[in-house]
Amino acid sequence: VQLVESGGGLVPAGGSLRLSCVASGSTASIKSMAWFRQAPGAQRELVARIYMISGIMNYVEDIVKGRFSISRDNAKSTMYLQMNSLEPEDTAVYYCNALSFHVDNYWGQGTQVTVSS
Q: pLDDT (tens digit, 9 = 90+) per residue, 62-89?
């Protein structure tokens, strides 16, 4: 499975961004997809996860605080993260992750999100 993220950029505080992650390869093997982020000097952390068949979504509420929304389009093998009311603390590299039914982990190359104060 290959993952390619897009949609990052520089936005002012309070702005919005929509990240996309396109999966290719053995996409039928994907059980769930997720967004992680990693700020400078910090560990990579989970933001949200979505299960491809059921559509069940899980959020890390301490991070999301009702501002982010994860979704997927199975026909396009694409996952999205709509981020609203962005804060400077959201500045990080955002990574797409896919977990297969065989518990294989896949990562994208990351997309930079920078929120200016």
A: 999 999 999 999 999 999 999 999 999 9
The phi and psi torsions of 81 (rounded to 5 degrees) equal -135, 110
Q: Are 58 and 48 in contact (CB under 8 A)?
A: yes
> Would the CA dihedral through 59, 37, 90, 18 be positive or negative?
negative
Q: Which DSSP letter does residue 25 get?
A: S
Q: For 95-117, what is each residue's pLDDT tens digit?
A: 999 999 998 999 999 999 999 99
Half-sphere exposure of 47 (CA within 13 A, CB side): 28
Distances from the Cα of 106 to the Cαs of 37, 51, 117, in angstroms? 15, 15, 33
Contact 68, 58 (CB under 8 A): no
The CA-atom distances, in angstroms, between 19 and each of 8, 22, 34, 36, 69 are 6, 10, 12, 12, 10
Nearest to 92 by CA among 62, 60, 59, 63: 63
Helix and strand numbers, DSSP H then E, in the chain:
1, 11
